[in-house]
Amino acid sequence: MIQRIQTIYLGLAFVCMVLLLVFPIFSISITSEIVEDSSAVFGPYGIMSAEGSQDEFPMYLVYISLSLITLMGILMFKNRKRQLAITRFNFILHLILVFVVYAVYFLGRSGLEEGLKEKDPLLADIQVKFGMDVGFFLVIPAMVFVYLAIRGIKTDIKLTQMTERLR
Questions:
Q1: Above 70 in pLDDT, residue 130?
Q2: How far is CA 109 from the centre of its chain?
C-alpha cells in the first residue's frame, strides 16, 4: 500500500534530492596576496566561479537520477521485494554520493592548493577556504531516509510472511 511509512521516508529523500538541484553543496574561496580574491560555488551545474566561468561537471544529472530512482522505489509499493532491491541500490548510490562529496570537501583543499601552485609558481601563499552551504546538509538526511525506508520495507515483508504462515 502506498500509505506505508517507507513511502513517507522515500518521499522525504526525494524532496532532499530535488532541493539539491536548487542549493549548492559548498563554496570555495581562494585568497592570495598576488591575485585578487576569487570564489566559486559547487552546485548542481558543476563548479561556477564568480566571474561566470564554469567547469562543466553535470552534478544535476546525478541528483536527477537519484531522485528518479527514489521515485521509482515509491511507485513499486505493490511488489515489496522489487521495492526493497531498488531502495537498496538507491542507498548504495547515496552512500557513494556522500563519500564523494565529503571526500572532495575534506580532502580536496590540499589537492586544489597544490594544483594551483603547480599551475602558477607565483601563488606560493595561496589559501583555499571551503564554506558549507545548504546542500551540504541535505546529502546526509536523504541517505538516512532511504535507510529508514529499507527498514520499513523489511518490516512489511516480515508482516506479510507472518500472516501467510497463519493461513
A1: no
A2: 19
Per-residue pLDDT for 167 more than 70? no
Q: Say how far apart CA 47 and CA 27 lie, in whole Å.
A: 9
> What's the number of domains the chain is made of?
1
Q: Which three cell numbers, joined as nine digits, stand for 157?
A: 515483508
89's CB contacts (< 8 A; 6+ apart) are 69
Question: What is the full DSSP assignment across 20-74?
Answer: TTTS-SEEEEEE-SSSPPEEEEEETTEEEETTS-EE---HHHHHHHHHHHHHHHH
What pLDDT does 165 receive?
78
Q: How far apart are CA 131 and CA 52, in angstroms?
A: 19
pTM for this model (two decimals): 0.78
What's the CATH number where 117 sits? 1.20.140
Structural contact between residues 74 and 7, judged by C-beta atoms closer than 8 angstroms: yes
* Owning domain of residue 27: 5-166
The whole-angstrom distance between residue 54's C-alpha and the CA centroid of its chain comes to 20
**Cα-Cα-Cα-Cα dihedral sign, residues 105, 111, 113, 119:** negative
